[in-house]
Amino acid sequence: MATHDLQNHTLNGDHCDHNIPISKRPKLSSPSTTITNATIISNSQIQSEFSHHVASVARINNGSFGSCPQSVISAQKQWQLQFLRQPDHFYFNQLKPGILHSRSIVKSLINADHIDEVSLVDNATTAAAIVLQKAARSFSEGRFEKGDVAVMLHYAYGSVKKSVEAYVTRAGGRVIEVQLPFPVKSKEEIITEFRKALERGRDNRKKVRLAVIDHVTSMPSVVIPVKELVKICREENVDQVFVDAAHGIGCVDVDMKEIGADFYTSNLHKWFFCPPSVAFLYSRKSNDRDDDDLHHPVVSHEYGNGLAVESSWVGNRDYTAQLVVPSVLEFIDRFPGGIDGIKKRNHEAVVEMGEMLVKEWGTHLGCPPEMCGSMIMVGLPICLRICNESDALKLRTHLRNEFGVEVPIYFRAPKDGEVDPVTGYARISHQVYNKVDDYYKLRDAINKIVSDGTICECLPN
Description:
alpha/beta, Aspartate Aminotransferase, domain 2, Aspartate Aminotransferase, domain 1, 2 domains, 7-stranded mixed sheet, 3-stranded antiparallel sheet, globular, Aminotrans_V_dom, PyrdxlP-dep_Trfase, pyridoxal phosphate
C-alpha cells in the first residue's frame, strides 16, 4: 500500500529564535512540489518521530487526541525553556511576534483574506464558546428575538451541544437539530435533512439566526458537505454560519473562500501534528456584522483590542503549543505533497483498511469512501450483540486492556423492522505512524472474541 512506502526523518527541534520576518510567507507544499531524496522523510524516521508512543498498543484513534512528532515536542521544550529562563524578555519580545508568525502560517493554509481573521485559541470547544457567547449577547441585548432559531446537526460534538444549551437556549433561542441518517448513503441525504430543519426553523415567522455545521462529525464520523450547506444558508437568509471543524485541518480540504462560512474553527493538535492544545478560529470580516463583538471567554488586560489580541494573552500560562506551528510546517513539508499528500495517503489507507475489515466480518462501512477523511466507520460483527452504549464502552475497554488496541466504538440503535442490523461500529483512524499490523491486530482481536462466543453483555465493566 502506497501509504506505507512513506519515507521519514528526524528534524532539528530548535526553531525558537524567531528572527524570521513576520511578513515572510510560509513554504506550503503541494503535490507538484519537488522534494529531493535527501530530504524525504523515511519510514524508519517516521517511527523514530513517534517512538514515544507505547509500542505494544495499536493506536488507531488519532481522531481523539491527535499526535505530535518528537521534533515538534523538542521545539516546544525549547520555547518552554526560553520562557522559564527569562519570562519578562519572553513576554515583551517573543510571545506576540511568535503567535503572529503562527497566525500568518494558518492564514495562508486556510486561504483567509486577512490575518486579523485568524485567532489562536486552546481548542475548538473554546472557539465554539466565543461564537455562541456572541449569539447569546445578541438575544439578551435585543438584536435577536426570543424564539429565534439556531440549527445544528444531531451528530454535533457533545461539548458543542452543551454550549448551545448553555448560551443560546438560556438566552431565549430555540434549537432545532438536523436529524441525519446513519449509515449514510450519499451527501444528498444530509442536504435534504438540512433543508427540512431550516423549514422547521422558519415556523411561526421566526428567523434562523445561526447554523452550526460540522465539517467532519466525530461520532459517527462522516464528512459533511459544508460548501453545499453554507450555500443553502445564504440562499435561505440564515444570519450567521459557524462551521465546527475540530477534525478539519490536516484531514480534509480547508479553504475559507470556497467554504464561505462566517466562522470556522479547527484544532491543530488532531491532524496537524501540534502538541495539545491549540486551535484556530476564523472570523470573516464583514461590513454587515459587528466584528468587534467577538471576545475570548477569559477577560484579560487585552479585552477590547480584537479577538486575536485578546486570545494571545489570557493570563500567565503555557502558550508554546501556539508557537510551534512553524516547526510543524517544517515536519509536514518533509512528506511528498506536504499536507495535501498526507491527507491523500491517510484517506486511501483508512479506506483500504476499512474495506479489509468489513470484508473479514461480513459487515459494511458507515458511509461511502468519498464521505470520509482520515477516519471511517467500520461495522462490527452482529454476533457481538452490541445493544447499548454500555456494551460499546465495555468492548472498547476490553480491546484496550486485553488486546492492546485503542479504537472508539459507536452504538447505533436498530431501526424498526430491521433484521439482524449492524449496531456497533469501530471508528478507525489513519495517521502517518500507523502500520497495516495495527489494523490486523484489531481484526484478530475481534475474531478472537467472536470465536470464543463472547457477547458484549458478558464483558467486564
